[in-house]
Automatic annotation (TrEMBL):
One Pfam family, short name: HAD_2
Name listed for the protein in its UniProt record: YjjG family noncanonical pyrimidine nucleotidase
InterPro entries the UniProt entry points to: HAD-like_sf, HAD-SF_hydro_IA, HAD-SF_hydro_IA_YjjG/PynA, HAD_2, HAD_sf, PGP-like_dom2, Pyrimidine_5'-ntase_YjjG
PANTHER family the record matches: PTHR47478, PYRIMIDINE 5'-NUCLEOTIDASE YJJG
Source organism per UniProt: Gillisia lutea
């Protein structure tokens, strides 16, 4: 069943359009090589991915700072692999990760096709909790910035999804009303519950194919969004 009266569509960026997992893995591969670190990438990512997810949850809930997120996830990941890395090296790796990450531009399957399908019909926007200094560069480097009328970041707004104020700010910025607006994202709490609490429509992008029994419109492939829009 298609949504009626939607005029504005808001996307999350990482894990929704931009292939964070692939681009992050390539970033670590590049950094480890340039720093001559003999660390197995596959083994490192097995521990890093869930640790990074946990740190982002803490950051989203204002329980840790941006700097604690950037370095803490590395400290814990190396500790889990029983690899001793001095703090100055951690700081260097953290800085290089942020520097190199937006240079990789892999998108999730179907991103361009979906944006081409939607752009003639709707105003498209981004709402992201990602760091201000990298999100804009990501959009430019993967050649999708031109699809979006507005880009709203948590650092710009001062609060993170699911806080109502970031959705309020994004809609004011784009001159939109909640009942005419749809949020699409991979994080159920931040993207879906946050948007619906503000009165928006929402579709959950089940990026990891968890098949959670949420009572919400959801898809596992971007192309499947066309059945709603």
């Amino acid at each position: 069943m298609k949504f009626n009266n939607i005029q504005h569509i808001y996307f999350d960026l990482d894990h929704t359009l931009w292939d964070f997992d692939k681009n992050s893995a390539l970033t670590f591969q590049s950094i480890f090589r340039s720093e001559n670190l003999e660390i197995g990438l596959e083994e490192f990512l097995k521990v890093y991915v869930p640790i990074n997810s946990k740190y982002w949850e803490l950051y989203r809930n204002d329980q840790i700072s941006k700097e604690s997120l950037r370095t803490g996830r590395l400290v814990d990941s190396f500790s889990s692999r029983k690899v001793e890395v001095p703090q100055p090296v951690i700081e260097n790796l953290s800085n290089k990760y942020i520097q190199f990450l937006p240079g990789f531009n892999h998108l999730l399957e179907g991103t361009i096709e979906l944006l081409d399908y939607l752009q003639p019909k709707y105003k498209l926007h981004i709402i992201t909790n990602g760091f201000e200094e990298v999100q804009q560069t990501k959009l430019q480097n993967c050649n999708i910035a031109s699809y979006f009328t507005t880009i709203t970041t948590s650092e710009e707004t001062g609060v993170k999804k699911p806080h109502l104020r970031i959705f309020e700010h994004a809609l004011q910025k784009s001159n939109a009303l909640p009942h005419n607006s749809l949020m699409i994202g991979d994080n159920y709490e931040a993207d879906i519950l946050g948007a619906k609490s503000y009165g928006m429509h929402a579709v959950y992008f089940d990026y990891y194919a968890k098949n959670d029994a949420f009572e919400i419109h959801q898809v596992q492939k971007l192309k499947d969004l066309e059945k709603y829009l």
